[in-house]
Amino acid sequence: MRGRPSDWPFVRYVFDRGGRSGILWLLAQESVTMELRVIGCHGGETPNHRTSAFVLDERLAIDAGSLTSGLDLGAQFRLSACLVSHAHLDHIRDLATIADNRCQADCEPLVVAGTAATLRVLKKHFFNNLLWPDFTEIPNKTRPTLRFVELKPEKRTEVAGYQVRTVLVSHTIESAGFIVEGEDATVGYSGDTGPTDRLWELLNKEKNLKALLLEVSFPDREQRLATVSGHHTPRTLLKDLKKYARPKDLPALLYHIKPVFQSEVEQECARLKGVNLTVTAIGDQFVL
Ligand SMILES: [Zn+2]
Ligand SMILES: [Zn+2]
Questions:
Q1: Which CATH architecture has domain 11-15+32-287?
Q2: Ligand 2 centroid, distance to 128 Cα (angstroms)
Q3: Chain segment 204-214, per-residue pLDDT in tens
């Protein structure tokens, strides 16, 4: 665990890597503007790996792969909204269980925001009263447990007090990245994607971008598998990061590594030059 620099009073958390070293970056600002918590950051699950879920300022979740396996009830109830990048199970699965928990506690409706295609899959194949109850009508239609909000690509939409834009990326089904603007900090999220262009074009225009959560899934020797499944290897990740004007100045927080390849991908990423990479771990907390 890194110590807290005493001359940086704005720092509330440093991340605990269980003794492993990581790059800690802290941006000197008057006050804490955004706190990012890593709930799950892997492309698969074991007792030591959780699927994708991140939380900003305790109120906005980005993907729901581990919102109930990784958050206690209080933290589940404090969420206002969840951005859903795409409909693959490792990103939506805990919407089922968080809906169930929140319904029993009579919580405010949880906004579930995603593109029209993603919401269509959720309605038709998940909350369809077959696989799981339709929590957009439970306990009743006027005050349901879940409320779906459509995000139109690249159009700013207010969600849980943030301005959110979706950017379509390159995956096997429609998948979106996000640009989330807080008052003084902006964070990017790649979603599941292989090489892509538009996300980088938009990120290059961001004045206040503090960090990018960026997927990488397979080692370089599994490039074929990465290509057909719409994911990055360290090699394609480096190429894509160079589409950003100043890759060294952009803290890239890596997630979605497949548990089987964890150490191999980490080693390959550690060898990449001219970039600022941190492999995220469950429990990491970043102040942006
Ligand atoms: Zn996916
Ligand atoms: Zn995934």
A1: 4-Layer Sandwich (3.60)
A2: 22
A3: 999 999 999 99
